[in-house]
Specification:
The protein is α/β, with parallel strands linked by helices and 770 residues long. It has five domains: 99-242, no CATH class; 251-275, no CATH class; 289-377, no CATH class; 391-534 and 626-655, Hect, E3 ligase catalytic domain fold (Alpha-Beta Complex); 658-765, Hect, E3 ligase catalytic fold. The protein is built from 28 helices and 17 strands. A five-stranded mixed beta sheet has the order 2-1-5-3-4. The protein has a four-stranded mixed beta sheet with strand order 14-15-17-16. The radius of gyration is 47 Å and the shape is elongated. Keywords: Transferase, Ubl conjugation pathway. Residues 29-57 are annotated as: Disordered. GO terms for molecular function: ubiquitin protein ligase activity.
């Protein structure tokens, strides 16, 4: 108990000492202490003791320690806070809005690939734009910003969806089996290759229940570094180029074109420069032609031209042009004839009166276009409705003809493409002119074509037929110029009906297969010969088919050595093993193409892959260039919508070799009532006509094609091929009018056959007649 009472006694003593100290301080500081110094001090009672007080005395309770400490040390207790200086209020924090920079690209239609050429989209007010969006923007604010940046989105129906590039290139079909083989052998989990056109796949952006927010766009675009593609879902946006003062171009920096003086957006400035330069070239050529004609006295000096109406189409032409128009006006109303395979010919020219008159105007008379009003019988406004019918026609030949007519009609008023061939030069120089013409980039190949033979006075559609016949012949059989492949250069190799593109790296790097696609498409648009004997496997892959589903035969292998090696796998007995000598060339070929060596279990698999590599894998880049050339000539649109038309553009050799009866059905023989004063007797006409019929019935396919080419300009029989017997020395022809003139002095068939074969063999060196 003493140990416990000692601390309490010590605390009470300390408390008494403090109280006495405070009492002394209060007594000395109070005024009563100075007035009455003799008064006795008041002694505080000790704790644990009692004090007695007199009656009537008022004794106040002693202050607690807390109260005394507050008085002694006021700054240490809460009462001092009221007496402290108030602190200044903190200023209100301003919430700053941070803007994020995104790159958007508006596409014209629903697609799962990135656009290949954004220039077309940019000209239509679409394409890539840089947009600033607040970091706290929601779906409504983002939509509002995009509608301001792309005005065409305001009228878009069916909604739109933002997408991003997945980073995976489109893998060519020809490499699919390679990828599966490499993944199986080397355990590759992801193999990405550059695809068919350098385009990447796109995937939709993730979104929450409230739509897209700025945070989602920031995460999906890697902080704005990647492009976000806006894809229309149900409706396509028109990609017609807009005028340069359109609202879509208001925010773009502009510059003045020095050629035409128009304010052009800086990003679109290269486009009008090319158009202006092409227009200047056309104007300069027309000026030179006018000067040359004025020098020869052929310029039209009359200010007033009398126009006559054509009785067939109703169009008005001058007296000088009317004879030429009348000769081709009937072709402006082409009919859909049965195909050649059915036993009749197809009128492939489908010439339009405006095209013919425009060509004659620019080459012969150079009349003032203000006084001449050529035009088609069907207006341009009604063309789109007619151009949609070819999608619903069943037979492949008819939609091909109708699509060709609609495409040419839409471009008939544009300046023609001009090509000149000097027949006085050697064949290699002529080939150089052809290659130079078809290798010019960024050309609208649907425009009218104007061919001119320098060194020959021939004009008209026959010259155009002669040009296409010569070009397609070179494409089919090879050019004479040498690039290290021997005496000539063949773009296609192999046997009939199994031709594949050449695997020459020089031809591929020279973009000659892009030129080939342009030639094929341009010849098709103008009704020219088609490319025959192409392998069906190449056509299948060209149209977008998978190499795994292509039908490949051993005849499709163009290289004889490779064919013999693969033939060993095809004809060998599967039950017996190969000897080491037999395995050596097969294994060597397989290892050179990165394929496994021959085993007992992989024989069929190796045979299939060797064929696929020899025919398709080695030529996939050539096929890609062919597709690019067809796209530039607008023929690819037809093939995409109607793949069955490929049989018309890439015909089989059996279909290209028409029968004798086809030619005889299209010949118009002399009639008895047509005998004139200067014409031989009808009996003589019948004798010469009999000689010609016998020649047609007995000649081989090569001679028949030479005859038809000499007759009409190319190897395709035309409708209404006329025969006239005249007083002349040798056979002649008017290819524009499809007229063959035979001399009447022949008395024996052998004499007639000898002269006719000599004449038809000279069709490559010119015409000699107008």
């Amino acid at each position: 108990m003493e140990a416990l009472s000692n601390p309490r006694e010590q605390n009470s003593e300390i408390e008494s000492a403090v109280r006495n100290l405070l009492s002394c301080i209060r007594r000395h500081s109070s005024p009563q202490a100075h007035e009455n110094p003799n008064s006795s001090p008041t002694v505080a009672p000790q704790p644990g003791t009692s004090a007695s007080f007199g009656v009537g005395q008022t004794v106040s309770r002693p202050n607690t320690v807390q109260q005394e400490m507050q008085r002694a040390f006021p700054a240490l207790y809460h009462g001092s806070r009221k007496r402290m200086k108030k602190m200044a209020p903190e200023p209100a924090k301003l919430t700053s809005v941070k803007f994020l920079e995104f790159q958007f690209c508006l596409l014209s239609k629903n697609s799962q690939k990135t656009p290949k050429d954004e220039t077309v989209l940019l000209q239509a007010g679409l394409g890539r734009r840089t947009v600033n969006i607040p970091d706290n923007a929601d779906h409504t604010e983002i939509t509002k910003v995009l509608l301001q940046e792309y005005p065409k989105l305001q009228n878009l129906r069916g909604g739109w969806l933002p997408q991003k590039a997945s980073g995976k290139f489109m893998i060519p079909n020809a490499f699919t089996y390679f990828l599966s083989f490499y993944q199986h052998c080397y355990c590759f989990s992801h193999v990405y290759l550059k695809g068919d056109s350098g385009q990447m796949k796109t995937t939709s952006l993730a979104q929450d229940s409230h739509g897209y927010t700025a945070k989602i766009l920031k995460t999906s675009s890697n902080n704005g570094k990647n492009v976000i593609y806006i894809v229309p879902l149900q409706e396509e946006i028109d990609i017609t180029p807009l005028p340069y003062n359109a609202p879509e171009f208001h925010n773009m920096p502009k510059n003045i074109c020095m050629t035409c003086g128009i304010s052009v957006p800086f990003q679109l400035l290269p486009c009008p420069l090319e158009d202006c330069q092409s227009n200047n070239v056309i104007e300069s050529e027309s000026d030179k032609e006018k000067e040359n004609e004025e020098a020869h006295g052929l310029s039209h000096k009359s200010d007033v031209i009398c126009l006559d109406a054509c009785p067939i189409c109703g169009e008005e032409f001058s007296a000088e042009v009317m004879p030429y128009h009348a000769s081709t006006c009937a072709e402006s109303f082409p009919e859909i004839f049965p195909s050649i395979m059915d036993g009749n010919s197809v009128d492939e020219t489908a010439s339009l009166p405006s095209q013919t008159s425009t060509r004659l105007q620019s080459t012969t008379f150079q009349l003032d276009p203000d006084h001449l009003t050529p035009g088609p019988s069907v207006s341009a406004e009604s063309a789109p409705s007619m151009c949609d019918d070819w999608k619903r026609i069943e037979l492949p030949e008819r939609p091909a003809i109708q699509y060709r007519q609609c495409t040419l009609r839409q471009k008939e008023d544009e300046p023609p493409l001009k090509v000149r061939i000097d027949i006085r030069e050697d064949m290699e120089d002529q080939e150089g002119r052809m290659i130079h013409f078809y290798k010019v980039p960024k050309i609208d190949w649907t425009r009218p074509l104007q061919c001119q033979l320098e060194g020959d006075v021939a004009t008209g559609d026959g010259v155009q037929r002669h040009f296409f016949s010569m070009v397609m012949h070179k494409l089919q059989n090879g050019f004479l110029f040498n690039v290290g492949n021997g005496n000539g250069t063949a773009l296609f190799e192999g046997q009939a009906d199994h031709l594949i593109p050449s695997t020459s790296l020089v031809l591929l790097q020279s973009d000659l297969f892009v030129m080939t696609g342009r030639i094929i498409g341009n010849s098709f648009l103008h009704g020219g010969p088609s490319l025959a004997s192409v392998s069906p496997a190449i056509v299948h892959v060209l149209l977008g088919g998978s190499p795994q589903t292509a039908t490949i035969t051993i005849e499709d292998v163009a290289d004889i050595d490779i064919r013999e090696t693969i033939q060993m796998l095809a004809v060998g007995d599967s039950k017996n093993d190969f000897t080491e000598d037999q395995k050596a060339p097969i294994n060597q070929l397989a290892m050179s193409w990165d394929l496994p060596v021959l085993t007992t279990t992989k024989r069929t698999w190796l045979l299939h892959n060797l064929l696929q590599h020899a025919v398709l894998t080695r030529t996939w880049r050539q096929v890609k260039q062919l597709r690019q050339g067809l796209k530039e000539t607008m023929v690819w649109q037809l093939l995409e919508a109607r793949p069955d038309v490929a049989s018309v553009i890439f015909t089989r050799q059996s279909m290209a070799d028409w029968s004798t009866q086809v030619l005889l059905n299209n010949i118009i023989w002399p009639m008895e009532d047509e005998e004139g004063d200067n014409e031989p007797p009808f009996t003589t006409q019948c004798r010469i006509s009999g000689y010609l019929r016998k020649f047609v019935e007995t000649a081989d396919q090569c001679k028949l094609k030479q005859l038809v080419k000499f007759w009409v300009g190319w190897e395709l029989p035309m409708k209404e091929m006329q025969v006239k017997v005249v007083q002349a020395e040798s056979p002649t022809s008017s290819t524009c009018f499809c007229i063959l003139r035979l001399p009447a002095h022949y008395t024996t068939y052998d004499h007639f056959k000898k002269h006719l074969e000599i004449c038809i063999a000279t069709s490559d060196v010119g015409f000699g007649l107008v």
